[in-house]
Amino acid sequence: MRDVLALILSGGGGERLGVLCAERAVSALPFGGKYRVIDFVLSNCAHSGVGRVGVLAQHAPASLNDHLGAGRVWDLDRRNGGVVILQPYQTRSHAGWYRGTADAIAQNWDWIEEHRPERVLVLSGDHIVRMDYRPLVAAHLEREAAVTVAVTQVPAHEAHRFGMVHAEDSGRIRSLEEKPERTDSALANMGIYLFETERLAEMLRARPVDIVLDVLRPQVAAGHRVYAHEYEGYWEDVGTVASYYRANLELVRAQPRLALHDARWPILTRDEERPPVWTGDHAWIEDSLVANGCRIEGRVARSILFPGVRVGPDAVIADSVIMADTHLARGARVEHAILDKYVRVGEGAHIGATGRGPVENMDWLAGLALVGKDTWIPDGGLVERPSSIGIGGRYEDLPGGRLAAGHLVPNRRWFEELP
Amino acid sequence: MTNRYAFILAGGVGSRLCLLSERRAKPAVPFGGKYRIIDFTLSNCVNSGIFDVGVLTQYRPTSLNQHIGTGRPWDLDRTRGGIQLLQPAPGLSASDWYQGTADAIYQNIVHLKRRRNDEVLILSGDHVYQMDYNVLYAFHRRNRASLTVAVTEVPEAEVSQFGILETEPQGRVTAFKEKPKGEVQGRLASMGVYLFDREALIRWLVEDAAMPGSSHDFGKDLLPRLVARGEPVYAYRFPGYWQDVGTLDSYYRANLEFVQAEPPLDLHDPEWVLHTQTADRPPVRVESGARVERSLLANGCSVLGRVVNSILFPGVVVERGAEVRDSIVMHDTVVAAGAVLDRAIVDKEVRIGREARVGQGDDMAPNRACPEHLSSGLVVVGKRARLPEGLTVGRNARIGASVSEEDFTAPVPAGGVVDGPESMH
């Protein structure tokens, strides 16, 4: 794998994740009780022996910068190689935000060339997947492919969410469809590509914007060797509230398809130093993941708790994702909700109560209540779902202490909080 | 602030900790669900702004060496200063195994001479406490002391286990008795925290090294001598929690104090983080039907059974129907389905077989091998022991490290001893 250089595309602004990605990239989103989404792909690189990694970040790169640091936790703090964040930059001849996936790669071609890799592995930082890239590379070499596209089976009714791939039995790709209404293919493009570097250089000469539309389709049409490689493990792109929530809750199923407890393929992350989980006399926890630093006195069911979450006496959390250092006071109740960091839920407050009446245009919330970071929910407050409260929500955002289903409270700007 | 140097004495054999320190130095004994005892002292150093630390090891240093590594968790992986592990090195000068605590420093006197600090702090790696050493420095300088000893009040029944000081009201020390047997005035015990004037210390160490009758120990020799001849020795009375976890009983008690709603030290204080070497483990997984009450559980644990008033270190698995009560269970130990632990201290990577009962019955016969240390009802199980299915183990029993299922021919009675193969090290 020394001849493979990985590029992790982390451009996703996560518009469909609402308040959760208002100030962070999807790949920097906390996941699974102590990780960030990008940890999965970085750990895959580390365990697959890919030692040179560039992260192409456009949206909120600071959130990633902090997390990646020098890459030590993934053993990617190397003298030669390691992990580097590649942000859009200006030159005399152009000032370019990344216009698309292919454009992002083209804009960093100088950096890629410096490493002289034989092959370039293009990954997405938004995927929850534990994938060994070595079989993909082996299949690619065996077929003498110019490009290999990782694909995975998806149910027919979900095909409209994905790019679908039509391949021969040999694996050679005949055509690619983008989010088809109807298709007879069951193979979805995972957004993971292995290119021969020399061929990629040629492909980028036409100034393509998007990998699928402007690179792969013309390559297939011209009869070049573009192959599909099927991946059979668990894979989820967490670009929506529904998929992000589903992937988190997958971890607390009785037989999760995504195992975090596998010492052979640990998910590496930047760990914070927190004391062990403390449970009080009347704590009751089931089917949950609870990270170090949590203090639990109430009840927690089917939920994911990040470091430093406090659940007061008689408080209840169910079917929810609660990010770091959020506190629930005595008797508070949170269900079917995603609470970002540093939220304060007052005594007896209730988040995620079932709303009354039909709600329009809120499918993207997947029926959940989202609460942005630094929000304070007053004692006895009531937040119905679906709904969303922006970053820094305050008492005055909840008239009468209530937020009815179907309401969106916009983000407060951070400087409004300064005295 | 930056110009400070500390030695940590981490050579302790910890013989009263029985099995726990059989294969590791006492400062390396696991504590509090994810830490090791030395983490308290190391974290005190860095939280007090001391980033130049020498750790003196002697007894079974391997686990300590591994734990400290380059010192990164404590920000002690530095270009200047940082952490240095100081093993006895035969062949250097008149060096040999360290005789006593003073000898350990004497043999490293080169590190004292090389530095330009006015003072040097000498600490023990054996204690559980959070202390800002800056306060000690200020006290020392205010009194123009040559030596300041941090002291804490201990219960009268325990004075014979400590170095006991008598002081004038302003803190000047008038008497020092190491582990006094008879009547003593006062209950102020030395915490093993000494702040010395560096040049005075060099002088005193050289002098002590030349004395034929000396056992070269701070507590036994140096301190009583300095006090007796009227050197400016002061006692700084530390107001906070301090615990010597030198015996199995005190170790057990101190650990379980941390599962209380109001623990003696705030491990959540972001201003005084207790740093340690943390392995990458997923969050604690608790499945349906499990109960976890008044306990500490570290990342990597997986609980399907019942855990009450206990401490689980990373990676402990409590299977369905198993119960862990009033116990301390270290890394990666598996308590198989239906097994019960009651008042047990179980070392790392142990397997408790299905339906086994550890800590059974009312018979309080003290342990046959170490009756003086194991008589309060605790059961101790050594590292990597494998207890067979259905085994019962009485109270005060000791199961050696690495024993296998075949080493058990019958239930282990109260006070029983099952020894495994001799350590290969």
The two chains with the largest interface, and their residue counts, are:
A-B, 39 and 37 residues
Low-confidence stretches of chain A: none
What value does the average pLDDT of chain B take?
91
Q: Calculate the terminal CA-CA distance of chain A, rounded to whole Å.
A: 54 Å
Number of strands of chain A: 33
Helical residues, percent of chain B: 10-25%
Oligomer: heterodimer
How many distinct helices of chain A?
Answer: 8
Query: Largest sheet of chain B, if any?
Result: 9 strands, mixed
Which outline of chain A best applies?
globular
Rg over C-alpha atoms of chain A, rounded to the nearest angstrom: 22 Å
- What distance separates the N and C termini of chain B? 41 Å
> What's the number of helices of chain B?
8
Mean of pLDDT of chain A: 90
Whole-angstrom Rg of chain B: 22 Å
| Helical/strand content category of chain B | alpha/beta
Strand content of chain A: 25-35%
Compact summary:
The complex is a heterodimer of chains A (419) and B (425). With 419 residues, chain A is an alpha/beta fold. In chain A, 17% of the residues lie in helices and 29% in strands.
Question: What does the model show?
Answer:
The complex is a heterodimer of chains A (419) and B (425). In chain A, 17% of the residues lie in helices and 29% in strands. Chain A is α/β, with parallel strands linked by helices and 419 residues long. Chain B has 8 helices and 32 strands. In chain B, the strands form 6 sheets. In chain B, strands 1, 4, 5, 6, 8, 9, 10, 11 and 12 form a 9-stranded mixed β-sheet that branches. In chain B, strands 16-19-22-25-28-31-32 form a 7-stranded parallel β-sheet. In chain B, strands 14-17-20-23-26-29 form a 6-stranded parallel β-sheet, with no helix packed on it. In chain B, strand 9 and strand 10 (173-178) form a beta hairpin. Chain A binds chain B through residues 32-34, 73, 252, 254, 260-261, 266-269, 271, 273-293, 295, 300, 304-305, 308, and chain B through 32-34, 73, 259, 261, 267-268, 273-276, 278, 280-300, 302, 311-312.
